[in-house]
Description:
Elements (H helix, E strand, L loop, with lengths): L4 E6 L2 E8 L2 E5 L1 E6 L10 H6 L6 E4 H6 L3 H8 L1 H5 L5 E4 L2 H7 L6 H10 L4 E3 L11 H21 L3 E6 L5 H14 L2 E4 L3 H5 L3 H11 L9 E3 L8 H6 L4 E4 L1 H7 L2 E4 L2 E4 L11 H5 L2 H4 L4 H29 L2 H9 L3 H12 L15 E2 L9 H14 L6 E2 L7 H4 L14 E3 L6 E2 L11 E2 L14 H7 L7 H18 L1 H9 L3 E4 L6 E6 L2 E6 L5 E3 L1 H7 L9 E4 L4 H5 L4 E2 L3 E3 L9 E5 L5 E7 L13 E8 L22
Parallel strand pairs: 4-5, 4-11, 5-6, 7-8, 8-9, 9-10, 10-11, 14-18, 15-16, 23-26
Antiparallel strand pairs: 1-2, 2-3, 12-13, 16-17, 19-20, 20-21, 21-22, 23-25, 24-28, 26-27, 27-28
Helix pairs in contact: 6-7, 7-8, 8-10, 10-17, 12-15, 15-16, 16-17, 21-22
Amino acid sequence: MIEFELLERDGLARLGRFTTPHGVIETPALLPVVHPDRERQPIPPEVMRQEFGAKAIITSSYILWRSPVLRPRAEVEGVHKIVGFDGPIMTDSGAFQQHAYGDVEVGADEILAFQNLIGTDIATVLDLFTEPSTEEAAASAATEETAVRARRAREARPGLLAVPVQGGLHPAVRLRSAELASELGDVLAVGGVVPLLEQYRFPELARLLIAARPGLAPQLPVHLFGAGHPVSFAFAALFGVDLFDSSSYLKFARRDALMFPWGTVDAAGIREAMCACWLCADLPLPEVMRRPAEERVVHFARHNLLTCLTEVARVRQAIRDGQLWELAEERAAAHPALAAGLLQAVRGARWFVPSEPESRPGFRATLPSATLRPAVIRFLARLGAWQAGREPNVPHRRMALVPSSLARLPAFDLDGRPIRYGVPTPVGPVPLELSELYPIGCWNGPDSYATGEPRSAPREAEETERLPLRGDELVLWTERHLGAILEWQYGAPASAEILAEHPDVVRSRRTGRVRGIVKDGAVWFTVGTDGLPYPTWQGARRLHPLLELPRRRVLVDADAVPFVTEGRSLFSRFARPLDRALGPGSSAHLVDDSDRLLAVGRLLLAPHELGRFRRGVAAVVTAHARSPPPITEEPVEFPQEDVPPT
């Protein structure tokens, strides 16, 4: 059984790894398609590994099986020696050939036994390929037959097994297929998508992936068969695709076509040295076109493969940086079909929300669809709940929550009633006290750089600004700010209790923004650049009894209690969800079965994923009883010149 370990993530997309008999595969990963006959493979697999950094490949067990020359050798020497690759090898089963050319002469059990015999690292079930146009009844029947074959394969396969997920464009069938594959497979291979990819039908691909997503077990890697063009990698990764395979690097090269992250270019029309990759730096593209056809194919295939592998590396880095949505939008901006697919994805944002990080380092919006990202959908839903029953906000200009601005802003009207201001944001008006929260507090979009006449404040705001000041507006607004963000995270009762302690704040010397909530010189909460309050051990001890079960809690199995208490990470197999509203990146109270607070942890997994991964960390402990208490000096006073103007 596979042990897939999640290392980092950005929503459904994740950096992970799993071990095969011939080495570790780190995801997301591209598995270049390699022809088992070396005479027909222009880029040797060992060159792919040593020169291009490919860690794993995929080849056809069916082509090996039907070859009277290669089959006897493969049965004796194994697929790794035949192909010439000492890393992990995945083999497909001939399902595509069966679909394209009619019934093949090998059965599902026989091809699985052959894959076992030749020592493949990941074998694939011979499934029934279903076209997007396949009618629902036929797609459902094919899915059930594939499940029957997969059950037999599971019993006969001692190693890793890829089970295809089919079902055409029928959501219910796709979901059923995903659930069956999750019961039987180690790798979940979403198939039947090549026609969609070839015809740039990205909206339908998005609907297909959204339909399958709830049925795909989160602890298993997901492979998207035939996703070999770099334009699709970031898009597919948004849906949690971990593995890609590509033969297109060679197919495109044979027709003098070059692959780039933004699309495909006919090499015959290239007159400039437009590519800066190290291959084209040595031999510019216009010069390549003067070479013999055989030499051109090799160069273009190498260029295409390098482009694909480099784009996967970009996807990996974007996941590390929390910027995969930005990368996907950047790619979508280059092609209308992909932009349409991304719009379809955000229309299904509710499927992304359970795995959506609580915050990211930033929020860069380049396409209008950015306002429909899962982070925005979740924020607006929480905002609606937070504002329910409150008085309407008074429109006001956008401003920073810093002393220089707050000290000049009336907190009460002429009748002594509190004024609730609403400030404009790209997603609509937001209460001033919440305007620093992710994603709006770090929003970076076209409006941030708009030029022209400055926008005047609404008339209502102009009238309120002429109200008399009480002299203690900064204190009043600071209390409102703290109360709002504490209520946002922990609820109104807990917020009221914390404020009743009359805590102080620490503000950044550079920006004047709140960065800590302090009581008697000890930091109870740190406030991140996402505007959210994160408890220290001292803060968590005060906060914990104020939170009703199961709010902000994750249950720790008894076996792991001593380790978590000492500050060691909580592993997935010892974690159980309590608060289903938490998400990756959330600060959670790690408790035992008597609700004793053991530690504070930052979640890597979503609640529905806790306990399902056999390897890996569920939460990194950020504070515990033996943590040195963070102490601060008295709250800092800020000179006027240290606070940037608003």
